[in-house]
Design goal:
Layout (H helix, E strand, L loop, with lengths): L3 E12 L40 H13 L7 E2 L1 E5 L9 E5 L5 E10 L7 E14 L3 E5 L2 E5 L6 E7 L6 H18 L11 E11 L9 E3 L5 H20 L7 E6 L4 E7 L9 E2 L6 E2 L2 H9 L5 H12 L3 H9 L1 H12 L4 H18 L14 H12 L5 H14 L3 H7 L8 H14 L1 H8 L6 H11 L6 H16 L1
Parallel strand pairs: 11-12
Antiparallel strand pairs: 1-9, 1-10, 2-15, 3-4, 3-14, 5-6, 6-9, 7-8, 10-11, 12-13
């Protein structure tokens, strides 16, 4: 296995959040929830005599992505006709860009945590980002196919990497970071389950003795980043097995069977020249001035890397904690909302990354849905402040958090209703400590005879006697004093 190295390039198709379609004023609707064929017009249906008009907002969004990916923006770019015949493409061709794309020669730095080995950083080059129109949507029912043209003509930005990705882990890291950038820019909502963001890996393998790339395959229309990871793993394994058995890999388009967790060959891949690209005669060459580029650059929002650096600098967070908080825009927004309610930045980060994420994982709720839970930023900040003020210890706070998750409500009220307020009164705790030491006299004697590891067990006995509500710092301090007194 070590003799083989995966070679992977990604193609990412991102629908742009414009109000109208790429080449007409037809409105963009949710292609999953809207009634089929309810948002169509003569242009998106490809009716004879219609003429396309470029959507300026889509161009602006494309420039934003290009600049966020450190791309060059050529002064001239041009649309082209890409011809192929398929039921979801009513014109018989797609208006795309070919040899004059909107953005070229970019890069994105990623942080990778492999299954084994040390974490590392890597730069993935971006070959191009170009604008095009999306196709319609086919639904296969029995032996027939139903077509919905709501999605036909929706602005689509295709981003193509160089084959710089060498593992499923790198592809996953790239996919998550790119999705976060698109969300932060406000140009795509990142919902892969609805197809508004689609990632398609081109996969081959190289033997350590190879001097050139081998045949690649492409896995189409993956609906989650985890499936990108799984499909790459499966296809790399399939290709290596073929080569090691003396067989070859044929260039093909693949699908992913999520139930059986395997790739499925759909058709053999077309060559680019079979698309018969030629300049779109109904659209002019698009000129992008330097002033326009700098105007777009000046209005870019704070992106994940910059936000992570700020979280580290202003709040003293570790690089890891900050990176997790910014990877999903919804999490970063929630965290900043908690801080706006007065919570301590480090405490809030610890409770989000630990307590809240644990509860969400246990309930199979994706992290990007953090703002749609019962626990508002204000309520979560109140919980964090109760802990920092010494009114709740960690165990009791976890109990309150679980109640907030299942039933909602104010943490202070839950604390009072369930009698979880932390006991910090030294007199009351001293009395309980003495009772616990008397009840565990044998363990106390062993501790005094040198078995100091039993201190933790004695702390546990005290906390149990306090029903888990004792202030751990006070309990530890008073217990140690009581034991030291017995030594004398």
């Amino acid at each position: 296995m070590n003799a083989w190295k995966p070679v992977i390039g990604l193609e990412i198709h991102a629908e742009l959040l414009t109000e109208s379609k790429m080449f007409s004023a037809c409105p963009v609707v949710d292609s999953v929830e809207a009634p089929p064929n309810s948002a169509v017009d003569p242009v998106s249906l490809g009716l004879p005599g219609t003429l396309p008009v470029i959507n300026a907002r889509a161009v602006e969004f494309g420039l934003m992505v290009g600049l966020a990916l450190n791309c060059e923006i050529p002064p001239l770019n041009q649309f082209a006709r890409k011809s192929y015949f398929y039921p979801d493409l009513p014109k018989g061709y797609q208006i795309s860009q070919y040899d004059r794309p909107l953005a070229i020669n970019g890069w994105l730095d990623i942080d990778v945590t492999p299954e084994s080995g040390e974490p590392y950083s890597k730069r993935i080059r971006i070959r191009r980002a170009h604008l095009e129109e999306d196709t319609g949507k086919l639904t296969h029912v029995g032996g027939a196919s139903l077509v919905d043209y709501n999605r036909a003509g929706v602005p689509l930005l295709e981003i193509v990497t160089e084959p710089d990705i060498n593992s499923a882990e790198e592809a996953e890291s790239f996919g998550r970071k790119l999705r976060a950038i698109l969300q932060y820019l406000g140009v795509n909502n990142g919902d892969m389950s609805k197809g508004v963001l689609r990632m398609e890996p081109n996969i081959s393998v190289m033997h350590s003795s190879d001097t050139a790339f081998r045949t690649r395959t492409e896995v189409k229309n993956l609906n989650s980043i985890r499936n990108v990871f799984r499909a790459i793993k499966a296809e790399v394994e399939r290709q290596i097995k073929l080569y090691e058995s003396g067989d070859t890999v044929k260039q093909a388009t693949l699908g992913w069977d999520d139930v059986k967790q395997r790739v499925v060959i759909q058709r053999y891949k077309e060559r680019a020249d079979e698309y018969r690209y030629f300049p779109e005669p109904d659209l002019p060459v698009l000129e992008i001035s330097r002033e326009q580029v700098e105007e777009v650059r000046a209005h870019l929002p704070e992106l994940p890397d910059r936000k992570r650096e700020r979280f580290e600098r202003e709040f003293g967070l570790t690089a890891y904690d900050a990176s997790v908080l910014v990877m999903e825009q919804a999490i970063a927004h929630y965290y900043e909302g908690v801080l706006a309610e007065g919570a301590n930045p480090k405490s809030a980060a610890n409770w989000i990354l630990g307590g809240l994420f644990s509860v969400m994982n246990a309930n199979d709720v994706p992290r990007e849905e953090i703002e749609h839970t019962r626990i508002s930023a204000r309520q979560f900040a109140a919980l964090v402040k109760l802990v920092d003020e010494g009114k709740l210890n960690k165990g009791a706070a976890t109990t309150v958090l679980n109640s907030m998750w299942t039933e909602g409500g104010d943490p202070a009220q839950i604390m009072e209703a369930q009698g979880l307020a932390q006991v910090s009164d030294t007199g009351a705790i001293s009395a309980v400590v003495e009772q616990a030491l008397v009840a565990n006299d044998a363990m106390v004697q062993r501790y005094l005879n040198g078995e100091e590891k039993l201190f933790g067990a004695l702390v546990g006995a005290c906390m149990k006697a306090l029903a888990g509500k004792g202030d751990p710092k006070v309990v530890n301090d008073l217990l140690r004093r009581a034991l030291d007194a017995r030594r004398g």
